[in-house]
Amino acid sequence: MSKRGAAVADQVVKLIVGAGQASPSPPVGPALGSKGVKSMDFCKVRLPALDPSIPMLRRTHGHLLPNNRALFFFREFNARTANLIVGTPMPCRVTVRGDRSFHFDIRTPQTSWLLLNAAEVPIVPVGNKKKRKGASNPGKETVGTLSLKHVYEIAKIKQSETRLSGLSLESLCRSIIYQCRTIGLNVVP
């Protein structure tokens, strides 16, 4: 492949970043910096450019509020994850274009993380971090119990992802129940 073709190709960076915790420090900074993207552009909150000829804002009691026609959206990670619990690990795929512009998709948290939190598995130290951990011998020991209602709610969360929206809720529930067994969780009706 020629150098010209390599410069035009899109590059994908896969990250897992805590909700509302994107910063230029690792893992975001080095991963994006190696692709030529300024990590501050990823972390800071920006509004799209406003056309001064369109009355997009109205002043109410000293505050600027969007009117009904205005569609505000935040492109940056911290703004997109502002409604989530801070620190929730969110898988993110950043696509870097040849001109160093980028766009990204935020996916739902990993199923194992959702399961371990729903089962309220205690947090244990792993290396220099503290996190929830499944059973070391899943077939013989259990670390927690979940009801079918938990499994159903997690399946609904996962089905909201576009890549999983074609799967039926029943098949998602079955795969989640299987994953419960592999991490040492007991599912009760």
Tell me what the structure shows.
Keywords: Ribonucleoprotein, Ribosomal protein. Residues 13-44 form the Large ribosomal subunit protein uL11 N-terminal domain. This is 54S ribosomal protein L19. It holds the Pfam family Ribosomal_L11. Residues 107-187 form the Large ribosomal subunit protein uL11 C-terminal domain. The protein is α+β, with helices and mostly antiparallel strands and 189 residues long. The chain folds into two domains: 3-48 and 57-106, Ribosomal protein L11, N-terminal domain, CATH 3.30.1550; 111-188, Arc Repressor Mutant, subunit A, CATH 1.10.10. Helices cover 30% and strands 24% of the residues. It has seven helices and nine strands, in the order αβααββαββαβββααβ. It has helices spanning 3-8, 28-33, 39-43, 77-80, 111-118, 148-159, 169-183, and strands at 11-18, 57-60, 63-66, 89-96, 102-106, 123-126, 129-132, 144-147, 185-188. The strands form four sheets. A three-stranded antiparallel sheet has the order 1-4-5. A two-stranded antiparallel ribbon has the order 2-3. Strands 6-7 form a two-stranded antiparallel sheet. β4 (89-96) and β5 form a beta hairpin. α6 (148-159) crosses α7 (169-183). The longest helix has 15 residues, at 169-183. The chain is globular. Residues 45-75 have low confidence and may be disordered.
